[in-house]
Amino acid sequence: QVQLVESGGGLVQPGGSLRLSCATSGSTVSIYPMAWYRQVPGKQREWVAAITSGGTTTAYTDSVKGRFSISRDNTKNTVYLQMNSLKPEDTAVYYCNGDGPVAAVEPFGSWGQGTQVTVSS
Fold it and tell me: Own/partner pairs for 11-16, CB < 8 Å, 24+ apart?
């Protein structure tokens, strides 16, 4: 099973920026598309962004397009999410995992602890 450790969250004012990191346990992750998700208490987990295994193609949910940027460094087995122009509605716990169906199968299938992002004045 892949271990996923998210970090980089914190408290930031509206309009500010944060860079999240997702450290994974092994190089096997480098062959899979990866994604960032977020979840607000009482709501379903939301898909935010995805990146192909080679890092050349990305996709985003409409609400973050133009503000967030996903990237990866396969030599470090790490996925990043650069978040700019943050809004209060971005407040959530952010998680990384395989993209879509990949997250439900080996070597994935579980979730890390996530990292809290709070956007507030």
Answer: 11/118, 11/120, 12/86, 12/117, 12/118, 12/119, 13/86, 13/119, 13/120, 13/121, 14/86, 14/87, 14/88, 14/119, 14/120, 14/121, 15/85, 15/86, 16/86, 16/119
